[in-house]
Write a structure and sequence with these properties.
Distance between the termini: 133 Å
CATH topology of the domain at 81-206: Glucose Permease (Domain IIA)
CATH class of the domain at 81-206: Mainly Beta
Number of strands: 13
Shape: elongated
Helix content: under 10%
Structural class: mainly beta
Number of helices: 1
Radius of gyration: 45 Å
Largest sheet: 9 strands, antiparallel
Order of helices and strands: EEEEEEEEEEEEEH
Amino acid sequence: MDVAWARGGQDDRPSPPPATRPPVTSAPLGLAPLFSGAPRTTPIPSLPALSPPPTPVERTPMAGFALGRDPIVMPVEGAKVSDLHDSFAETRGTHKHEAIDILAPRGTPVVAAVDGTIEKLFTSKPGGLTIYEFDRDRNYCYYYAHLDRYAEDLKEGQIVHRNDRIGYVGSTGDASAEAPHLHFSILQLGPEKRWWVGSPINPYPYLLGAR
């Protein structure tokens, strides 16, 4: 018998150290311990707040916009913007209108739409009694047709200013006698500055801001 290990009936062999559980370390932020069986909890980044849709840009007419130096004025005294109708692209017989008709009682005064010069007083079968006015820079021609008569002492070469009386509404030419009106158009002149030749410009947008 080995007495070195049996003394007083008790086992004096050294006891093994108590079993210890390995330390549990906390998982990195957003990651569950692999042994826990818990689902991953990676946070979802928050999306930036949606900005409101842009406010639509209000489209306004070319009120007061000038082809030349000055905004044009209403060429018929007393005419209102609300009474205007855009007939530029409409057809008259076999050709495009390329002008605007401003209805008014016969004899209503017609005034110069811009500062300029009376380039030509002319009578034609379609237009009747007409006026061709060049602006001050001679870039644009303003055409007034179907006049009943000219203003007193109006002559070619005369310098006129906006709102100067130049004629009176009528129905001469091919206009209906039951519907007197001013046929008003704008031409962009070429380098030759011919009063009867030019590129038509729709006057309607410019008249929307006329006074």
